[in-house]
């Protein structure tokens, strides 16, 4: 990489500090990151000065609504920003820029956060940098794991994409044709009335670990893409039968005759969804002739998904799987600060007029100027 | 190629010697001179064995079901192609239980030793003979376009049209590799199929892609306009091309909510 | 002494015997049927009529697939002989397959197939062929070479074959000599039985 990342460096300053605000879904994150001058490398890693987050948790059986989520973000943002500054030991005026999630995501929550960003920008006279949420995940994943050029599986409540970098774009190789995998899991959690604390997906994962029997579900990979709404409809109907008080035949496992339990359903759902994800990832690997995978996004913290991905890459000339822990794979502000700062260093400032948020913002729309491999 | 998988294949194929051709995402491809049940010493034909190995990351029940249904699906597609007179390798034998398809091998060795895919042939002409835009190339591209036109006229979608999935030999061009194939009458799906080929040509044969693509489309149009299939075909062609323009504008993928 | 013998590369433990007999009397065939139903060991062969047979290749494919199914423990029929007959059929129904492909008393041409241990030598095969000739009527029966030419010119009923394998809408020029092409289509069709 020979891109000059310091064209816009302030004279006399040997580092940059950026604040990042994330609120595209129910996690509100504030992060403060420091980059020293020069290329990012093993000897010049980005430094996390603060990574604060608060999650809006809705009651069991309910999802989070945009209006309530936006209200949560508005209530918490000032607190979190103050805390982040305090933890990082910096003042507003020490910052180089204010980075914020411009999209994709839910409209009202994105809006609340961008208003905070604009306010800070005016307050401290700092430029704004709009960041694509997916690119935030990717860049943070790359930085934390130091993986060279992996195929990225980005899986969260709102997104499911397989991405490979090529010529200054993160190109989408495969994606969901309807809902995101996290969304599928979250909605099933609601059907089963599983608690949303700490996260519905996490609770499904724990239940799945206790599941034994595989219940046949549709398997809907379509070429390089996948569809999940049919699987959700199918398993929700199975669950409805299970809990129906009307009597009638309860589902049993064909081989053992044992009753199918909610744990079995969670297990079957995970096995099916994750197999499909691993499959489309493998297709991308074959296409670009790589054997490195980076998993980012909230669902990436699922241990079974990581295990399955590991089994797949092992058969591809002993490739590797990279993933980050919940600090970074679940939505956070530091990834926005990091990706935003990379953009800032290339002069990609967002003028106030262009800071409108957008619910649809495709990963491949971003010009990844800071890479030239 | 991972040895474990090749060893598995050797075991399942029982005594048949083969060379490794490639490892895709889903299947391994081998080449052999041995016919499973009809060996004629004078016959120098070779055959392709496509093997879908078990995937260790999948639950065994999912794995068995997918391997079987995908293998059957591909055989069905190949049979329909044969019935429709669309040139493609013909099925020789199958073992659905183990995910194996034995089929005819189409193609020959180019002077540089590579298989005669459209991709390798075009590259060979470019590098060695420096004649990328000859009449012969035009003729072949038109023929390939015509073949794809025939495919779409039968409401069949290849799903992975690249210049590596088109084989050339004396009898003309043939389609190969139907792991991602499907059926659809929608102009949108046919347009996406064409778009994938267009993009593949642009990235693999950048210098002459615009000529190649226009010749391909000419052949594709001819299949629709020469009336050999149906008189309505021309209308379909117009609709498909309209969709192709839409697909080009937005990129293959739809706009997604974050 | 005219019969076909072959070994399949994947099944070196077997020798495949195939032979054609013509001029078999109706009563003899009825006897064969009775013998098959009663499980009489004398009739432990695969008996076929020739109506829907297009090539030697088609026969070999059916035997090969039957052996493969046997190996994978996925045979549908109880015996190998019946499994061979089933693998000539496009429909996954044993009764239907037997009726269509099995020996037919209204026809005097019979094809006989047997899978033997590969140790069987020339003399053993000759003996086998002779015993089949005896079984099917002795000197009144002829035993010409079974090959693609005789199949195409004398034995196959193309109209019925096309109907059974649903090839009437296939884009093949049936007026040309395209035995090979039809054979390949028929084989693919058999591989899609029940799918």
Automatic annotation (TrEMBL), chain A:
Protein name, as recorded: N(6)-L-threonylcarbamoyladenine synthase
Coiled coil: none
Cofactor: a divalent metal cation
GO molecular function annotation: metal ion binding; tRNA N(6)-L-threonylcarbamoyladenine synthase activity
UniProt family annotation: Belongs to the KAE1 / TsaD family.
Keywords noted in UniProt: Acyltransferase, Cytoplasm, Metal-binding, Nucleus, Transferase, tRNA processing
UniProt cross-references to SUPFAM superfamilies, sorted A to Z: Actin-like ATPase domain
Catalytic activity: L-threonylcarbamoyladenylate + adenosine(37) in tRNA = N(6)-L-threonylcarbamoyladenosine(37) in tRNA + AMP + H(+)
PROSITE patterns, per the entry: GLYCOPROTEASE (PS01016)
Enzyme Commission code: 2.3.1.234
Cofactor note: Binds 1 divalent metal cation per subunit.
Binding positions for a divalent metal cation per the UniProt entry: 133, 137, 154, 331
NCBIfam families recorded: arch_KAE1, gcp_kae1
Localization of this protein: Cytoplasm; Nucleus
Gene Ontology BP, a term: tRNA threonylcarbamoyladenosine modification
Broad enzyme group: transferase
GO CC terms of this entry: cytoplasm; EKC/KEOPS complex; nucleus
Domain Gcp-like, chain residue ranges per copy: 48-337
Binding-site residues for substrate, renumbered to this chain: 154-158, 186, 201, 205, 302
Domain of life: Eukaryota
TrEMBL record, chain B:
Swiss-Prot/TrEMBL GO biological process terms: tRNA processing; tRNA threonylcarbamoyladenosine metabolic process
Residue ranges of every copy of the Protein kinase domain listed in the record: 15-258
Keyword set, alphabetical order: Activator, ATP-binding, Chromosome, Cytoplasm, Hydrolase, Kinase, Nucleotide-binding, Nucleus, Phosphoprotein, Serine/threonine-protein kinase, Telomere, Transcription, Transcription regulation, Transferase, tRNA processing
UniProt GO molecular function: ATP binding; hydrolase activity; protein serine/threonine kinase activity
Compartments where located: Chromosome, Telomere; Cytoplasm; Nucleus
Pfam families the UniProt entry points to: RIO1
EC category: transferase
Similarity comment: Belongs to the protein kinase superfamily. BUD32 family.
Name of the featured protein: EKC/KEOPS complex subunit BUD32
Source organism (scientific name): Pichia sorbitophila (strain ATCC MYA-4447 / BCRC 22081 / CBS 7064 / NBRC 10061 / NRRL Y-12695)
Cross-referenced InterPro entries: Bud32, Kinase-like_dom_sf, Prot_kinase_dom, RIO_dom, Tyr_kinase_AS
Subunit structure, interactors included: Component of the EKC/KEOPS complex composed of at least BUD32, CGI121, GON7, KAE1 and PCC1; the whole complex dimerizes.
Catalytic activity: L-seryl-[protein] + ATP = O-phospho-L-seryl-[protein] + ADP + H(+); L-threonyl-[protein] + ATP = O-phospho-L-threonyl-[protein] + ADP + H(+)
PROSITE patterns linked to this entry: PROTEIN_KINASE_DOM (PS50011), PROTEIN_KINASE_TYR (PS00109)
One GO CC term on file: nucleus
Keyword Zinc: no
Function: Component of the EKC/KEOPS complex that is required for the formation of a threonylcarbamoyl group on adenosine at position 37 (t(6)A37) in tRNAs that read codons beginning with adenine. The complex is probably involved in the transfer of the threonylcarbamoyl moiety of threonylcarbamoyl-AMP (TC-AMP) to the N6 group of A37. BUD32 has ATPase activity in the context of the EKC/KEOPS complex and likely plays a supporting role to the catalytic subunit KAE1. The EKC/KEOPS complex also promotes both telomere uncapping and telomere elongation.
From TrEMBL, chain C:
Gene3D superfamilies on file: CGI121/TPRKB (3.30.2380.10)
Source organism superkingdom: Eukaryota
Keyword terms: Nucleus, tRNA processing
Pfam families: CGI-121
GO biological process terms, semicolon-separated: tRNA threonylcarbamoyladenosine modification
Cellular location(s): Nucleus
Record bears the keyword Disulfide bond: no
InterPro entries according to UniProt: CGI121/TPRKB, CGI121/TPRKB_sf
Keyword tRNA processing: yes
Entry GO CC: cytosol; EKC/KEOPS complex; nucleus
PANTHER family named in the record: CGI-121 FAMILY MEMBER (PTHR15840), EKC_KEOPS COMPLEX SUBUNIT TPRKB (PTHR15840:SF10)
Family: Belongs to the CGI121/TPRKB family.
Stated role: Component of the EKC/KEOPS complex that is required for the formation of a threonylcarbamoyl group on adenosine at position 37 (t(6)A37) in tRNAs that read codons beginning with adenine. The complex is probably involved in the transfer of the threonylcarbamoyl moiety of threonylcarbamoyl-AMP (TC-AMP) to the N6 group of A37. CGI121 acts as an allosteric effector that regulates the t(6)A activity of the complex. The EKC/KEOPS complex also promotes both telomere uncapping and telomere elongation. The complex is required for efficient recruitment of transcriptional coactivators.
Protein name in the entry: EKC/KEOPS complex subunit CGI121
Species for this entry: Pichia sorbitophila (strain ATCC MYA-4447 / BCRC 22081 / CBS 7064 / NBRC 10061 / NRRL Y-12695) (Hybrid yeast)
């Amino acid at each position: 990489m020979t891109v000059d990342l310091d064209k816009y460096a302030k004279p006399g300053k040997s580092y940059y500090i950026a604040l990042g605000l994330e609120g595209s879904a129910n996690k509100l994150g504030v992060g403060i990151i420091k980059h020293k001058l020069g290329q990012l490398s093993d000897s010049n890693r980005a430094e996390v000065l603060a990574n604060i987050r608060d999650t809006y948790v809705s009651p069991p059986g309910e999802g989070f609504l945009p209006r309530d989520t936006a209200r949560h973000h508005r209530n918490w943002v000032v607190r979190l920003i103050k805390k982040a500054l305090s933890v990082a030991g910096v003042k507003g005026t020490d910052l180089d820029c204010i980075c914020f999630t411009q999209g994709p995501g839910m409209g009202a929550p994105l809006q609340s956060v961008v208003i905070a960003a604009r306010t800070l920008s005016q307050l401290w006279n700092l430029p704004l940098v709009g960041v694509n949420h997916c690119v935030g995940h990717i860049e943070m994943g790359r930085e934390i794991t130091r993986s060279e050029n992996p195929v990225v599986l980005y899986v969260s409540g709102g997104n499911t994409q397989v991405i490979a970098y090529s010529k200054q774009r993160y190109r989408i190789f495969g994606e969901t044709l309807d809902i995101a995998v996290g969304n599928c899991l979250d909605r099933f959690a609601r059907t089963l009335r599983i608690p949303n604390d700490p996260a519905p997906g996490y609770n499904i994962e724990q239940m799945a670990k206790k599941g034994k029997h595989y219940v046949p579900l549709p398997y809907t990979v379509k070429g390089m893409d996948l569809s999940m709404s049919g699987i959700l409809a199918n398993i929700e109907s199975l669950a409805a039968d299970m809990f129906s008080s009307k009597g009638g035949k309860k589902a049993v496992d064909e081989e053992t005759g044992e009753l199918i339990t909610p744990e079995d359903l969670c297990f079957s759902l995970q096995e099916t969804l994750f197999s499909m994800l691993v499959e489309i990832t493998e297709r991308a690997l074959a296409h670009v002739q790589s054997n490195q995978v980076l998993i980012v996004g909230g669902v990436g913290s699922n241990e079974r998904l990581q295990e399955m991905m590991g089994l797949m890459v092992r058969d591809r000339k002993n490739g590797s799987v990279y993933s980050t822990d919940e600090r970074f794979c679940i939505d956070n502000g530091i990834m926005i600060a990091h990706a935003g700062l990379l953009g800032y260093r290339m002069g990609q400032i967002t003028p106030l007029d262009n800071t409108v948020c957008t619910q649809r913002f495709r990963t491949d729309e971003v010009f990844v100027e800071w890479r030239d491999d | 190629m991972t040895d474990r998988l090749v060893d598995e294949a050797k075991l399942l194929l029982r005594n048949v010697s083969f060379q490794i051709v490639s490892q895709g995402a889903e299947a391994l491809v081998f080449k052999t001179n041995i016919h499973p049940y009809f060996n004629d010493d004078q016959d120098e034909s070779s055959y392709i064995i496509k093997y879908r190995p078990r995937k260790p990351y999948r639950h065994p029940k999912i794995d068995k079901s997918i391997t079987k249904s995908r293998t059957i699906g591909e055989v069905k597609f190949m049979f329909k192609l044969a019935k429709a007179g669309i040139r493609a390798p013909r099925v020789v034998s199958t073992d659905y239980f183990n995910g194996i398809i034995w089929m005819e091998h189409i193609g020959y060795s180019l002077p540089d030793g590579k298989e005669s895919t459209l991709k390798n042939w075009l590259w060979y002409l470019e590098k060695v003979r420096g004649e990328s835009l000859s009449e012969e190339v035009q003729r072949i591209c038109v023929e390939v376009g015509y073949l794809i036109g025939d495919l779409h006229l039968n409401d069949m979608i290849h799903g992975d049209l690249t210049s590596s999935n088109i084989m050339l030999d004396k009898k003309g061009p043939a389609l190969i590799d139907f792991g991602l194939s499907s059926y659809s009458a929608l102009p949108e799906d046919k347009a996406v199929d064409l778009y994938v080929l267009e993009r593949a040509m642009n990235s693999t044969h950048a210098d002459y892609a615009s000529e190649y693509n226009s010749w391909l489309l000419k052949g594709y149009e001819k299949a629709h306009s020469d009336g050999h299939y149906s008189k309505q075909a021309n209308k379909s062609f117009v609709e498909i091309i309209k969709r192709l323009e839409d697909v080009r504008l937005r990129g293959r993928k739809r706009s997604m909510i974050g | 002494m005219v019969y076909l013998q072959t070994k399949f590369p994947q099944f070196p433990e077997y020798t495949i015997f195939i032979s054609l007999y013509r001029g078999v009397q109706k009563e003899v065939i009825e006897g064969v049927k009775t013998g098959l139903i009663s499980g009489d060991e004398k009739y432990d062969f695969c008996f076929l009529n020739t109506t829907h047979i297009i090539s030697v290749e088609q026969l070999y494919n059916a035997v090969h697939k039957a052996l493969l199914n046997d190996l994978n423990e996925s045979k549908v029929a109880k015996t190998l002989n019946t499994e061979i007959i089933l693998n000539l059929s496009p429909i996954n129904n044993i009764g239907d397959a037997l009726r269509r492909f099995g020996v037919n008393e209204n026809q005097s041409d019979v094809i006989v197939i047997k899978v033997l241990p590969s140790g069987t030598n020339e003399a053993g095969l000759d003996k086998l062929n002779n015993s089949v000739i005896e079984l099917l009527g002795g000197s009144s029966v002829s035993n010409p070479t079974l090959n693609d030419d005789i199949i195409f010119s004398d034995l196959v009923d193309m109209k019925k074959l096309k109907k059974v394998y649903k090839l009437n809408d296939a884009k093949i020029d049936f007026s040309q000599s395209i035995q090979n092409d039809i054979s390949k289509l028929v084989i693919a069709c058999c591989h899609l039985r029940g799918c």
